[in-house]
Amino acid sequence: MFLSEFFSDMAVYMRYSGVSPMQDETKRRYYKILIEAHALEKGLSLQNPRALFGRDKIDFLMREVKRYDTSFSVFPVEMVIGAFETYIKMHKDLGVANEMLDDMEKFCSEQLAAFELTTSGGLRHFETAYKKSDMTPASFLTSRFSNRAMSKEKLGVDAICEVVKIAQAAPSQCNRQASQVHFFQDQAQIDELLQLQGGANGFSQDVGNLFVISCDLSAWGGAQQRNQVFVDGSLFSMALIYALHAAGIAACPLNLAVRSKKEKTIKRVAGIPQDQRLIMMIAAGKALGQGGYKAAASPRRPSEEVLHIHSPAVEITTGPAT
């Protein structure tokens, strides 16, 4: 049973993943453009971005957008143009001139002339980013962002215990509560873990508090539950991120999409038992917001690309029954 299910997973992934030559080329290009455009946004969101960073990504994006079939969706193009315009402005403010910037301006002009675009990539700016008394629940939820501008100052144990306690309200299949939180403040250990993770370049030197979320495999059994460890662990991780946001603590989730060998190494370095699966890391610390905060725009897809109503819409009313 287990073997057949894992082989079935492998077959589906090989047939439909973004690296499969059998997957639709436009759909694969759509996601690849989003990924690389966001990488550019992340660089812009750093406290002091390096001038003319990301040349390879910029060349890739200009090339791939020209090959992309916009009849599928113009959203990736909008995201690229927004990121490019922010990148160009940053360099103009720095007084930096370069042929690549000229090429980017020409590219933006051509795309804007060809399509009706709403540029939405680049950066978001906040005067006050964390919870205020007049925030509605919806405005609080949508105010969350990945903040890479944080102090190395150590968070207190009371604050850590409180956010973990709040995160424990996350739903868990059959109330297993198998998610585990590993918290680090030893700088040498944090540096080694972030180097293994590999996605915190540009701000890893500012991380003085690091969470590693894992989930205990012993809570799960049967072939049908083979992926539930990641579902439960991810729900807990999201709850922890919101708990940090509510506490006014800067947080930046860091994915752990790593191969088995590296996962074992991370667990060894972190002292995490091998019977736990890694979910993600979360860098955290006191938010640094001199004159406000900035973050990657991370624009969201149009809802019509995400919502699929499979039955006639029913009008929903709220309030007490009459």
TrEMBL record:
CDD domains: Nitro_FMN_reductase. Coiled coil: none annotated. The chain crosses the membrane at residues 235-258. The keyword Flavoprotein applies. Keywords: Flavoprotein, FMN, Membrane, Oxidoreductase, Transmembrane, Transmembrane helix. It comes from the Bacteria. Belongs to the nitroreductase family. PANTHER family: NAD(P)H NITROREDUCTASE YDGI-RELATED, NITROREDUCTASE. This is Nitroreductase family protein. It comes from Harenicola maris.
